[in-house]
Structure formats: C-alpha cells, structure tokens
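Dear colleagues,

For the upcoming journal club I promised to circulate an example of a predicted protein-ligand complex. I picked one with NAP because it came up in last month's discussion. The inputs are reproduced below in full, followed by the predicted structure.
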Amino acid sequence: MLGFRIEEAGGPEVLKWQSIDLPDPAPGEIQIKHLSCGVNYIDIYHRSGLYPLPLPTGIGLEACGIVVALGDGVTALAVGDRVAYGTGPLGAYAEASNVAADRVVKVPDSISDDVAAAMMLKGMTAQYLLRQTYDVKSGDPILIHAAAGGVGLIMCQWANHLGATVIGTIGSPEKAELAQKNGCHHTILYREEDVPARVKELTGGAGVPVVYDSVGKDTLEGSLDSLRPRGLMVSFGNASGPVPPVDVGMLSQKGSLFLTRPTLFHYTQSAEDLARTAGDVIDVISKGAVTIDVRQRYSLKDARQAHQDLEARKTTGATVLIP
Ligand SMILES: NC(=O)c1ccc[n+]([C@@H]2O[C@H](COP(=O)([O-])OP(=O)(O)OC[C@H]3O[C@@H](n4cnc5c(N)ncnc54)[C@H](OP(=O)(O)O)[C@@H]3O)[C@@H](O)[C@H]2O)c1
C-alpha cells in the first residue's frame, strides 16, 4: 500500500509518500482500508520533532475505514464493518492500517466517513476536557482558546449544549463569526485585545472557573490572569510553541490556582474508557447537539499542503485527507 513515513523531523517536506509493506493483522488486531484520515495538530508536533518519535515512523493517529481482515481472536467485529479510531497507532496517513480491535468504534450509518475521521481524536478530546478534566455546568462562564479550530468548534458547541457561557479567542474577525455560529457567545481577538481584561469585563470582574488553553507559549500568562480564585488552568496544547516552565509560587499569587496538562491518551487508556468517551461523542453528534464541520478536504497525497495550511492558521474546523 501507499502512505506517508518520516525518516527525520522537520518541515512538511519530511513527509515522504512511499510504498509500505503492511503485514497481516496480528492477534487482536483488525486491518482497516481507510476511507478518510483525520489531520490533527499533534501530527505537526510529531513531524517537527516537538514531540520526539523513534524514527523512521508512520504518521497520523485518526481515520475511518472498512474492516478488511481480522487477526486471531477478534470476535466483536466483522469484515465489512465501518469503524473509526483516534488514538493511533501512528500511520493513519496511509491507504490502510492495522489497529487493535479494542481501539476502534463502529460508526453508525448516520455519520459520514469524513465526520467519523474527524470526530475521534478531536471529539474525544472535547469530551474529556468538558466532562472529565473539569465538569462544565450550566451557567459556567468558560474560556476556550483557538475557538474556531478543529477541537475549538466542537468544544464551543458542546459547552453551549451544556449551558455554559462560552468565551472564545480567535485570530481573525472571520474566525470570530464562525465561532459565534458554533455556539461561542463572546469572541476575543487575542492578537489585538487584552484577554484577561475582556474576560473580567464579561464576567463582572470575577474571571472564569476554567480556561482551556491549546495555544501554549503565547497565551499562558493571560490564561492564568483570566481565572477566578481557585480556578483551573487546562494546558492541553502548544500551537504557538512549548509552554515555558511554570513558577509554582505564581499559582498562589494569582489566586490558589490549579494547573493540569492532560492528554487524550491517559483519558482513554482502557478499552472501557475509550468506548465510553467515544460513545458520548457519537451520542452528541447523533442527537444534533454537536455538528462536526469538515471544512478542508485534501487528497491523501497532499498531506504536506494540509500541514502547511494548518500551521499557517489558514484552516478552520476539521481537516481530512482522502485516500
Ligand atoms: N492534549 C490533548 O489531549 C489534545 C488532543 C487534541 C488536540 N490537542 C491540541 O489542541 C489544539 C488544537 O488542535 P487542532 O488539531 O484542532 O488544531 P486547530 O485548533 O485547528 O489549529 C490550531 C489553531 O491554533 C491557533 N494558533 C494560535 N497561535 C498559533 C501559532 N503560532 N501557530 C499556529 N496556530 C496557532 C490558530 O487559530 P487562530 O488563528 O484562531 O489563532 C490555529 O488555527 C492543538 O494545540 C493540539 O495539540 C490536544
């Protein structure tokens, strides 16, 4: 089969389209012929070396496809089932992959291939952030950075559905309009405006109980200053660069704050956790509370272009690659 591999870390040019030998699925695995592959910011960290990987390696963690072969011992799935996965293994930017049967979910007929390829990593992230890391309650004002991005648009809709007052930061007026259409009540242009001052203004001076920060280096300080006393800072990404070391004493000075740095993998480590988290995502999509907006589609071979556009902040919502 054909797919992308990387032999060294670097820019989009290190993504090499090549012929790959895919073995038969091992015991407990299924082989999936991909119909649509999800693009995520973590793919850029893997490619650039910000999150170092043993090289050479495949790349990409999320896809939807058809089961074409079963490894020994797999009984819960059948050849012909349409499934999706979002926690790897690395190698989703390819025509097919072998995945442990307990890391995939069956996709209901009502969900398209592209939505399924975009809902697993990003949707499960929104789920654990809003329901588990901090359990968002009706009436909570919350701050979400990069609100018009892939994870951002899902979080805005889901938080709105939970009854939160959603404050979102974004990079341009066009993105602000999109975030608002997706349930974001107040938008802040964080490249121009003073984020903590606007958050305080919008919350009657109180600040928010939780900040979801995937931007990292550029937003850390403003995020901490937007929290109310004993608020929770959730640092879950670093699109602008790695978060600098944090002075723990600062958390006391800024209001006895809590700080966590979660990843999806720890929230979906067991098969039961994965099934429950994905089930919740499928549930909100099926009842129309969350619509996954696949706004960019590229041919799989054009993954380099997809990376360039995502890094250049040209994309909004979800992006998929079509084999
Ligand atoms: N920890 C976890 O479990 C987990 C899981 C999934 C995703 N994530 C993180 O969540 C974030 C969103 O992922 P995504 O795939 O949905 O990406 P995305 O939000 O669609 O794209 C990243 C966005 O970040 C904003 N941004 C701010 N400063 C930037 C900069 N210097 N360079 C590039 N972008 C910048 C841009 O929006 P504006 O133009 O509006 O600023 C950009 O569109 C990423 O940081 C990702 O690593 C974490």
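Two points we might discuss: The chain has two domains: 2-121+265-322, 138-261. Residues 2-121+265-322 form a domain with the Quinone Oxidoreductase; Chain A, domain 1 fold (CATH 3.90.180.10).

See you all on Thursday,
B. R.
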